[in-house]
Amino acid sequence: MYIGKVIGTVVATIKISHLERRKLLLVDQLDLDGQETGEYDIAVDTCQAGPGDTVLVIDEGNGARQVLNLDPGAVRAVIVGVVDEVAVRS
Amino acid sequence: MKFARVIGTVVATRKYEGMEGIKFLVVQPLDEDRKPKGRPQIAADATAQAGPGELVFMVASREGAQALPEVFVPVDLAITGIVDEVEVDTSRRRDKPTANWIKLGEVD
Fold it and tell me: Which of A3, A16, A40, A55 has the most B C-beta neighbours within 10 Å, making it the best mutation to test the interface with B?
């Protein structure tokens, strides 16, 4: 899992059935200083997250399928939390 | 999932069983600003509607095969949607995260 920042939304009319009625958000991975790294994912949102939010993202298929109740499910990146606080020892 | 631009088509008559009817496309992976990143790859088209020139997103690794009608096939990259619109709030880029970011001191 990683912590990311929602930087935008993605709209697609034509998509596979596993993604129907799902909100897709563009998430940039953050480093331990909270800076954007340029590594990104188009992630399915399950937490009513929106642009600007700091979020927790799982990028693994089995967890994603479990969260979204899909089998089969061609999804890896899912937003599973909105982060309130991060404390890192320097 | 990541962005990609479809840049070509691939035809293979003889292929592994279960892959009949799957359309393969040449894709150029893109970064979050939709600029080319890395080498072109071959992706299975799970939407069956993508074509050269289109902006798509794709899922990689084992989940690529999960997008196809027959899930137990040797595919590691699949196009799962055709992008209509990407909206990025550039004014908020590089802002501090909304989460409270605490730096703890060094341990003695």
Answer: A16
Output the pTM of the full model. Answer: 0.93
CB A42 within 8 A of CB B1: yes
Chain B partners within 8 Å of A11 (Cβ): 83-87
- Nearest of B65, B97, B94, B69 to residue B78 by alpha carbon: B65
Beta strands per DSSP E along chain A = 2-11, 14-15, 24-30, 36-45, 54-59, 77-82, 85-89
Choosing among A2, A3, A7, which should be mutated to test the B contact, i.e. which has the most B CBs within 10 A?
A7
What CATH number is attached to the domain comprising A53? 2.40.50.220
Residue A37 pLDDT exceeds 70:
yes
Please answer yes or no on whether A61 and B62 come within 8 Å at the CB atom. Answer: yes
In a domain, A89, yes or no: no
Domains of chain B and any CATH numbers: 2-84 (2.40.50.220)
A8–B82: do the CB atoms touch at under 8 Å?
no
ipTM of the prediction greater than 0.90, yes or no: yes
Give the residues across from A87 on adjacent strands. B102
Q: Could you give the CA distance from residue A34 to residue A48 in angstroms, rounded to a whole number?
A: 21
The number of distinct structural domains making up chain A is 1
Contacts of B101 in chain A (CB under 8 A): 33-34, 85-86, 88
pLDDT tens digits for range A72-83:
999 999 999 999
